[in-house]
């Protein structure tokens, strides 16, 4: 039987050390804490940086956990499990709001719709499960960009001066999108006002797991004349969405907030 690989054990020890601290650690601190030579420690750190498991602060030179480790830790809940946990709440939201409901997760720089409940009327509708939505032009996407720590890092289009436009109302400016996401974080929900499809409005809120990490989003969508009134977006519909998001989050072990 093959023996243990020392370099992997040392890398794991470094990651555990970083995970246990609330701040970055210097090369000397890591080397001293694990009783490893600085040269050996530096070599492991550079390798972990290369694969995205460790990041180095350019200003201080200190090391901290990177997005690669975060991905491993937060993606234990896949779309199928999220859908299973959210089925009843999604149905309830559709009945309460009178609109169609979608649940989405982050997938390759887009929002993957993992569950879709039709609007509870007799109109002809198309099932949207498996549809990919743009992050910056959808309520589900804005929610993920605001609350999922991986979404912004994965949105390569976000680095461009101008983002793709879908209607005249699409936010295409990076500066404007940054301001929009700050507002989403402050409010706890996101809106999409004819930014992806003309005449359509959507509202979404984050679904969190037991660690408080956003693992998806739930939202409703419908015609602008139904979801808006003379004062703008109907806040009762916003409340319905947030209630559903909180309920699903509790199903996943999140603490009430």
Describe this structure in words.
This protein has ten helices and ten strands. With 257 residues, the protein is of the alpha+beta class. The chain has a six-stranded antiparallel beta sheet with strand order 5-4-3-8-7-6. A two-stranded antiparallel sheet has the order 1-2. α5 (79-97) packs antiparallel against α10 and α6 (139-147) packs across α8. It is elongated, with a radius of gyration of 21 Å. The mean pLDDT is 85.
Q: Strands across the major sheet, in which order?
A: 5-4-3-8-7-6
Q: Strand tally, please?
A: 10
Structural class: alpha+beta
CATH-assigned fold name of the largest domain: Beta-Lactamase
Report the CATH architecture of the largest domain. Answer: 2-Layer Sandwich
The number of domains is 2
Sheet-strand content, in percent, reads: 15-25%
CATH homologous superfamily identity of the largest domain: GAF domain
The average pLDDT score comes to 85
Outline the low-pLDDT stretches. none
Outline, from the CA principal axes?
Answer: elongated
- Order of secondary-structure elements: HHHEEHHEEEHHHEEEHEEH
Count of alpha and pi helical runs: 10
User: How far do the termini sit from each other?
Assistant: 50 Å
């Amino acid at each position: 039987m093959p023996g243990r690989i020392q370099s992997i054990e040392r890398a794991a020890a470094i990651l555990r050390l970083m995970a246990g601290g609330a701040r970055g650690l210097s090369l000397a601190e890591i080397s001293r804490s694990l009783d490893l030579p600085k040269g050996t420690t530096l070599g492991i750190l550079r390798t972990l940086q290369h694969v995205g498991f460790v990041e180095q602060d350019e200003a201080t030179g200190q090391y901290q956990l990177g997005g690669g480790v975060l991905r491993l830790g937060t993606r234990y809940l896949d779309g199928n499990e999220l859908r299973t946990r959210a089925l009843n709440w999604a149905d309830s939201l559709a009945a309460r709001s009178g609109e169609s409901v979608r649940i989405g997760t982050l997938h390759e720089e887009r929002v993957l719709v993992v569950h879709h409940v039709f609007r509870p009327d007799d109109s002809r509708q198309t099932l949207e499960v498996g549809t990919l939505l743009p992050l910056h032009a959808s309520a589900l996407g804005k929610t993920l960009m605001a609350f999922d720590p991986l979404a912004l890092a994965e949105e390569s289009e976000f680095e461009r001066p101008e983002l793709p436009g879908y209607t005249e109302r699409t936010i295409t400016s990076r500066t404007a999108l940054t301001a929009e996401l700050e507002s989403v974080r402050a409010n706890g929900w996101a809106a999409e006002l004819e930014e992806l499809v003309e005449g359509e409005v959507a509202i979404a809120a984050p679904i969190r797991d037991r660690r408080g990490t956003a693992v998806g989003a739930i939202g409703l969508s419908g015609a602008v004349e139904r979801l808006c009134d003379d004062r703008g977006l109907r806040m009762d519909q916003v409340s319905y969405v947030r209630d559903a998001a909180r309920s699903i989050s509790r199903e996943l072990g999140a603490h009430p907030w």
